[in-house]
Design brief:
Number of strands: 3
Number of helices: 5
CATH superfamily of the largest domain: Metalloproteases ("zincins"), catalytic domain
Largest sheet: 3 strands, mixed
Radius of gyration: 25 Å
CATH class of the largest domain: Alpha Beta
Shape: elongated
CATH topology of the largest domain: Zincin-like
Strand order of the largest sheet: 1-3-2
């Protein structure tokens, strides 16, 4: 670790678990809800591409994400965006269904209603 990473660990930050991911793409990321439950993953592509000093800089960068709780904030944002997307999708589907049903001919013409029978969801 470089001086910055050592300073962070000396300041009382617990050491995160470190994982190596078999992937040729150069990448590294931090995960976990807080510093006590954090992990840093580094791909084999990054390990092959960078020298020791560069790798220490990448690890220090990932430790900053852990220390600043960026990983928790990002996780919360992903959940909120996912919930909003799900809600918009359901509202859009209901609107499309509503518009399709309003334009249908009377029930006795059959073919349109048969096509939409499986579409109705409770």
């Amino acid at each position: 670790m470089n001086e910055f990473a050592n300073a962070m660990l000396d300041a009382g930050m617990p050491k995160p678990r470190v994982y190596i991911v078999e992937d040729p793409a150069p990448n590294a990321f931090a995960t976990g809800r807080n510093p006590k439950h954090s992990a840093i993953a580094v791909t084999t592509g990054l390990l092959q591409l960078m020298n020791r000093d560069e790798l220490e800089g990448v690890l220090a960068h990932e430790l900053c994400h852990v220390r600043n709780y960026d990983i928790l904030v990002n996780s919360m944002v992903v959940v909120l965006v996912g919930a909003a997307t799900n809600m918009v999708g359901k509202v859009s589907a209901e609107y499309v269904k509503y518009r399709a049903v309003r334009k249908l001919p009377p029930k006795h013409s059959g073919e349109y209603h048969e096509a939409l029978e499986g579409f109705h969801q409770e």
